[in-house]
């Protein structure tokens, strides 16, 4: 059995649920984790509400190898992610001396007000996720990785944390363009999926450049040979199709 | 007390979790529901797995006024949304005669294979969401609204179902550009938020056209007077700021 590493993602923020801000992090993190060999199994989006954050965090952190969070680590009253995570883990939270020291280099005494100092609040025992270009750090506590909501900062944090993550046997993926309508291949495709149980076969309709209905078929597996066998069966099925579009 | 109508959103599909497809539905539905006066409280993204779909659906449908789902209603073996929903509700599922009749008008006997007929599988007691331009219908069963994953079709389905939804007192929203860094206003903003409990005040940093750090402040409330009072306090605070950027 190969070691499978899983993840949940928790997106925190009223602005996503109201539609004011369109999330750009889910797609990025999904693709990033897939490339690392980590299976993203579930995403949840919750509001800036302590009870909602803790409930979702607890559901995810006990179920998956890692939980990634985005959002809610800024300087304002609606940024409650760090405190919620400390509460979920039952640990204290205080201004982290190393972060405060960096803030003192960056800001004058007048500027380093209570709001900015909030960004130095880190749960006890957490490991900082920081670099010279990241102002307010993220952190890793247990299996939970807490990141910024601003995409560019979140992406910088992912690059820092990625090398430290346990990664699994990577999911391999191959795509073929069917040049057929999804409805014409659904039957034989089901048989192929049944005959190749260690693969995952996905079917994604799209409109091609000739404005015709077309389909991408994606075969995924952690085993290269099994993937190749299923893909061969898919291609054989497509070659034998006798349909018009 | 005003009647508050809530919603959960369940996005179904391996392709979103693998990063292959970037979701465009969450942001659209969030904004659409906000405009209807329905509060989107939570979003979950799960894979094409019956157990995962049912667990998420049950968590959401008992908690919120409505649950919207996207994805998994096509003709292939990985399209298992309708069957999962029938199972969650404990009702039967079969080919819906009205849908089959429409399919017969559209497709020849050879084309109307088992795969395409799958798209006519509708749980018992569900109400169809369909129009002349929608091929495979969505449906509404209890408080669950099942829609396509393809954004253009999902959007057409939302337009059909929206007039039938109970809508709440609409959340009003006003935005002001702070011309200040988030860290400089976090303290006074917290006091304003505390003093105006029936409003929700959000703070969203951005880089403005002069490449300076700037902040949008959003005040939301269902009560126009309370919103106006909180926004007045925010603007007074901003006018009294003595900070440089």
Helix content of chain A: 25-40%
Mean pLDDT level of chain A: 95
Distance between the termini of chain A: 43 Å
Low-confidence runs of at least 5 consecutive residues of chain A: none
Described by strand count, sense and barrel closure, the largest sheet of chain A is:
6 strands, mixed
Instruction: Tell me the CATH topology of the largest domain in chain A.
Output: Molybdenum Cofactor Biosythetic Enzyme, Chain A
In CATH, what is the homologous superfamily of the largest domain in chain A?
A: MoaB/Mog-like domain
Oligomeric state of shown chains: homodimer
Helix-strand pattern of chain A, N to C? EHHEHEHEHHEEEEHEHEEH
Q: How many beta-strand elements of chain A?
A: 11
Estimated structural class of chain A = alpha/beta
Protein name (chains A, B): MoaB/Mog domain-containing protein
Organism (chains A, B): Bradyrhizobium oligotrophicum S58
Domain MoaB/Mog (chains A, B): 8-168
Care to give the gist of this entry?
Chain A is α/β, with parallel strands linked by helices. In chain A, about 40% of the residues lie in helices and about 25% in strands. In chain A, α3 (about 50-60) packs across α4 and α8 runs antiparallel to α9.
């Amino acid at each position: 059995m190969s070691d499978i590493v899983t993840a949940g993602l928790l997106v925190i923020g009223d602005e996503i649920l109201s539609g004011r801000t369109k999330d750009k992090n889910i797609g990025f993190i999904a693709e990033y984790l897939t490339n690392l060999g980590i299976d993203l199994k579930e995403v949840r989006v919750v509001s800036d509400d302590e009870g909602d954050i803790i409930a979702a965090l607890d559901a995810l952190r006990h179920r998956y190898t890692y939980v990634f969070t985005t959002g809610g680590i800024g300087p304002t009253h609606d940024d409650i992610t760090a405190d919620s995570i400390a509460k979920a883990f039952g640990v204290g939270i205080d201004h982290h001396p190393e972060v405060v020291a960096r803030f003192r280099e960056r800001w004058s005494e007048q500027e380093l007000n209570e709001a900015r100092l909030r960004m130095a609040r880190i749960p006890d025992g957490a490991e900082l996720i920081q670099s010279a270009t990241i102002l307010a750090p993220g952190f890793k506590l247990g299996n939970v990785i807490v990141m910024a909501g601003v995409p560019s900062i979140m992406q910088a944090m992912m690059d820092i944390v990625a090398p430290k993550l346990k990664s699994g046997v990577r999911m391999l993926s191959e795509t073929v363009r069917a040049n057929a309508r999804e409805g014409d291949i659904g039957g034989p495709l089901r048989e192929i999926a049944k005959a190749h149980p260690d693969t995952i076969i996905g079917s994604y309709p799209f409109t091609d450049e000739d404005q015709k209905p077309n389909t991408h078929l994606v075969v995924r597996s952690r085993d290269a040979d099994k993937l190749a066998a299923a893909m061969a069966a898919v291609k054989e099925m497509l070659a034998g199709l006798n349909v018009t579009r």
